[in-house]
Write a sequence for this structure.
């Protein structure tokens, strides 16, 4: 069966095939593949670069903006992750998603696995940030500027990447 993959025109055939393989391995649907691509587009500033660094200086790097602590938990150095090809870094993306895979049923759950994993499976109106440093660091996600960021608000920019990515599709074998 052939499917359309969001952002498929922006990555190599090997990258696309690996994304499909990851999704199939987790028992995910074709939708999950486009969600994953959209999350990586958002996190990497549409570059799909394994070496792209977080502009805010958090130390995060790569396709899903691996934090140094996250890399350490995966037993890989952040600089090693940055030195990989995009196709090779996908193995670490897969390893990262493994503990959450069975609970990801929506685009917002996919993004929460990256941003705040404890909110995977939680309602869209769940408040992620309200006040404090965490809110300030993520205030760009507060769409209605009410001082609180919900799961739905946090996902809105990723949804926009999904919508854009669906104009840059590639047909792949599922």
């Amino acid at each position: 069966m052939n499917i359309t993959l969001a952002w498929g025109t922006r990555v190599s055939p090997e990258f696309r095939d690996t994304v499909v393989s990851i999704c199939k391995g987790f028992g995910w649907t074709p939708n999950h593949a486009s969600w994953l691509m959209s999350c990586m587009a958002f996190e990497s500033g549409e570059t799909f670069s394994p070496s792209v660094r977080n502009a805010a200086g958090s130390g995060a790097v790569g396709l899903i903006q691996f934090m140094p602590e996250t890399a350490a938990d995966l037993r890989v150095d952040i600089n090693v992750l940055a030195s990989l090809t995009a196709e090779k870094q996908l193995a670490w993306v897969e390893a990262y998603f493994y503990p959450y895979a069975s609970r990801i049923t929506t685009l917002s759950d996919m993004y929460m696995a990256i941003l705040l994993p404890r909110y995977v499976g939680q309602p869209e109106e769940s408040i992620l940030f309200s006040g404090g440093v965490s809110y300030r660091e993520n205030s760009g996600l507060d769409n209605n500027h009410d001082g609180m960021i919900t799961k739905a608000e946090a996902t809105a920019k990723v949804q926009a990447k999904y919508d854009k990515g669906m104009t840059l599709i590639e047909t792949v074998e599922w």
